[in-house]
Amino acid sequence: MSTDSNTPHTALQRHLSSSQISMIALSGALGTGLFLGAGSTISYAGPSIIISYALAGFLALAVVWALAELVSAHPVPGGHGAIANKYLGKFGGYITRWNYTITLLTAVGAEVTASATYLQYWFPNLHLGVGTVLCSLFIIVLNLTSVRFYGSSEYWFSLIKVTAIVVFILLGLSLILFGFPGNQPAIGFANFTSHQGFAPYGITGIFLAICMAVFSFGGVESVSVTAAESENPQRDIPRAAKTMIWRLFIFYIAALAVIIALQPWTQTVANAGQAAASPFVKVLDTVNIPGTGHVMNAVLIIAALSAANGCLYAASRMVHSLSLDGMAPRFAARTSASGTPRYAVMLCALCFFVASAIAIWNPGNAFMSLYGCATVGVLVTWALIMLTHLRFRKIHQQSGLPTPPARMWGWPVVNIVVIISTLAIFIALRTLLPVTWSAGIPYLILLFASYAVLAKVKQLPNAELTTH
């Protein structure tokens, strides 16, 4: 990375505490994919969606530990993207960072669109486009503040949604095992096997649901981006990776199990994609506990805005890193006195115009269109991370360098399994979400072509990893 990354006007500042990094890492993958997308995903596998999420979670686990190893050795601005620049070359660094940035910005669009969808639970006449614009403005303002304020706000946002999920799971288990006094008897687990059985579509359904579940775990990569602003990255990043992944397993698996037990999965699927159709809200409304549906809807709005907040944060840091290496507009490298890359944030904020335009033009399919496009980016990101880790580990072993604080087990077999899995999922998405191919293939072609054009018109600096 170019040496001017340490000048007063381009340097990030290490103001994120260990607890804030843990919450930011968790927040990135705890958003719309679970709260809203689960309704659509259940349609592919029924109750066996639990197996699908567990298997998708294992892929995410491998990616997270590869990231932890990479970033604990190189806690630099740009996270895994900047590291790819060193180990995969300029082309690899360019593709990794720009793909991840575009993926994050697409995910931001999905999250703010979901936020506007949740608002329609209270305001049925609110146009999805108007709600998307309002939510977008809120997220932009948050990201223009100092990183210390961002870390604090994201910590509390994440804590609210984590607490809400825990309460939802405990309340659900109470209703399943004991019922609700004066309301209804214990529901039990009959819904796991009713309505065509536990796995109504067999192994095929479980695999197809894995393809859809990948988006839910997209965002785990944000743990690497915080390294450049961590007070102690060698300690904090491995710790955040470890706590994040087991929490995600518990939250996803337990929450989905409660949803399936409380109401027939066919009922959950019947309303998927409609304005007030989050399985969490619908389940609480179904069991007739006064006011809980409204409380949960408020939490869902916070959760979606929090995920959007985290995605815009990570995207702006990637653009900042690209700018330092001459692969993005130069002005995006500049930071404020508090270390916030405000120009990069404003450049990334252009994605909100796209999301708002889609929501206004095609409100019925806005979320699923963005969902599908973001999933392609997640698959490419995971494959590139595992390729970077393959090269990183090989060079470290040959050079006899010290072992990083975090270390992924199963190299290189795990890397190869994840890469093959991402390719298989992408192929399957051609049928599940046609937009992933109709938009994804042209997108990848343009991404590769853009590097060829950039490399031809300007001299790119050599890959260096400079901390600050």
What does the model show?
By secondary structure, the chain is an all-alpha fold. The protein is 70% helix and 0% strand. The radius of gyration is 21 Å and the shape is globular. The termini are close together. Mean pLDDT is 79; it is low at 1-8.
Protein traits:
single chain, 468 residues, 20 helices, mainly alpha
| Overall pLDDT level | 79
**Low-pLDDT segments:** 1-8
Span between N and C termini? 11 Å
Number of helices: 20
- The helix content is 55-70%
Class from helix and strand fractions: mainly alpha
Structure summary, number of beta strands = 0
Main sheet summary? none
β-strand percent reads under 5%
Radius of gyration: 21 Å
Overall geometry comes to globular
Element pattern in H and E: HHHHHHHHHHHHHHHHHHHH
